[in-house]
Design brief:
about 190 residues, mainly alpha, globular
């Protein structure tokens, strides 16, 4: 059984490029789908998981952490809408505003910027570069101040994108299903 290009676990520069192209194409479809939901639905948490908007904020954080900070060396890459993972301890200067309620357009503009950054990094990757170490960022933050394999940094973002798109699609399906069920209940005649 052959895996479709871009869907296997990336092992070299070309497979990272293929994986990123698939991730961007799939997210484009999901973003278009999300435009069919209300703002309230896009901020709705499903079964204790992040809302669609929070998921996008988390992916901005993942790119800021692993590409902009760990790989590109920016000690403070954070945007106020970044949303770290829940089990991460608070870090100096890293935002964590659960109450923020950006619009879909705001969060997608931010995502487009970060996805462009990743696209540029991956476009310039070589097989040799994947196995080099980053220069540690000395300022406190996340990830910790140490050298990482370039492969780990880029792989973390690709992995996060894949996993969270699956979660986002699952949650949009549940929201749509619940919305339809509620509409049907509201349309049923009452007997009394």
């Amino acid at each position: 059984m052959t895996t479709e290009p871009g869907r296997e676990r990336p092992t070299d520069a070309d497979s990272f490029r293929a994986a990123w192209a698939v991730a961007e194409a799939e997210w484009d479809q999901t973003f278009a789908r999300a435009r069919g939901f209300s703002a309230e639905q896009l901020h709705e948490r499903v079964d204790g998981e992040w809302s669609f908007i929070q998921t996008q904020r988390h992916l901005v954080f993942a790119t800021d952490a692993w590409v902009r900070r760990a790989l590109l060396g920016d000690p403070t890459p954070w945007h106020p809408l970044d949303l770290p993972h829940d089990d991460m301890d608070d870090q100096p200067g890293v935002p964590r505003d659960y109450a923020a309620r950006p619009t879909l357009d705001e969060v997608l503009a931010l995502r487009a910027d970060r996805m462009s950054t990743v696209r540029g990094v991956i476009a310039g990757l070589t097989d040799e570069a994947l196995d080099t170490m980053t220069v540690p960022v000395l300022e406190p933050g996340y990830p910790e101040s140490e050298a990482f394999l370039v492969r780990r940094c880029v792989g973390a973002v690709v992995s996060e994108e894949r996993a969270h798109r699956t979660f986002a699609e699952r949650d949009l399906d549940l929201i749509r299903s619940r919305s339809r069920a509620a509409a049907q209940r509201g349309a049923e005649p009452t007997h009394g």
